[in-house]
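Quick one, C-alpha cells below:
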C-alpha cells in the first residue's frame, strides 16, 4: 500500500522492480542479493522470474499530473534486465508516459517495466494498492510470501 500525502511526499527514481518477497531466507543458486525491507525478506531472483510477473495497481484516489502519477517507459520490459547505468539513456530516448488514474482505476503492467514517480506538485492523498503476481513457483524450495 502506498499513501502519498502532503506530509509524506516522496520521489522514486527510474528503476525496474527486481526483488520478490519470500517466506524465509535459504541458500538458492541464482538468487541474491538478499535484503529486508519493512520487515519483509526480499531477494532478487533470476530475471526470468520477474519477466513472467505482472503488477496490479488499484487507485483509491484520483491521481492526476499534479499528484505524482506513475511514469513508465512503454516497451522497456522487453529489454530484459537493464543495467542501472543504462537507465538514464533509455529514459531519455523514451518515450515516457504519465499514467494518470481516477479513483477505482486499476493499472496492470509488466513488473519489469521501467517506472518512476515524482513528488506531487499539488499534494493530496494518493493511495494505491500495489500487488505483484506470479503464476510460477520459485526454485530451490523458496516460497512466495503471498498476501499479508
Amino acid at each position: 500500500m502506498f499513501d502519498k500525502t502532503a506530509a509524506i511526499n516522496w520521489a522514486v527514481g527510474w528503476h525496474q522492480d527486481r526483488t520478490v518477497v519470500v517466506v524465509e531466507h535459504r541458500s538458492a543458486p541464482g538468487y541474491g542479493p538478499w535484503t529486508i525491507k519493512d520487515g519483509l525478506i526480499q531477494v532478487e531472483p533470476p530475471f526470468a522470474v520477474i519477466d513472467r510477473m505482472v503488477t496490479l495497481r488499484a487507485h483509491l484516489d484520483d491521481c492526476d499530473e499534479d499528484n505524482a502519477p506513475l511514469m513508465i517507459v512503454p516497451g522497456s520490459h522487453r529489454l530484459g534486465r537493464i543495467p542501472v547505468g543504462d537507465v538514464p539513456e533509455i529514459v531519455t530516448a523514451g518515450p515516457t508516459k504519465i499514467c494518470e488514474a481516477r479513483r477505482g482505476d486499476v493499472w496492470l503492467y509488466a513488473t519489469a517495466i521501467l517506472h518512476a514517480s515524482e513528488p506531487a506538485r499539488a499534494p493530496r492523498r494518493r493511495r494505491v494498492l500495489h500487488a505483484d503476481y506470479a503464476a510460477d513457483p520459485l526454485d530451490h524450495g523458496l516460497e512466495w510470501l503471498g498476501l499479508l
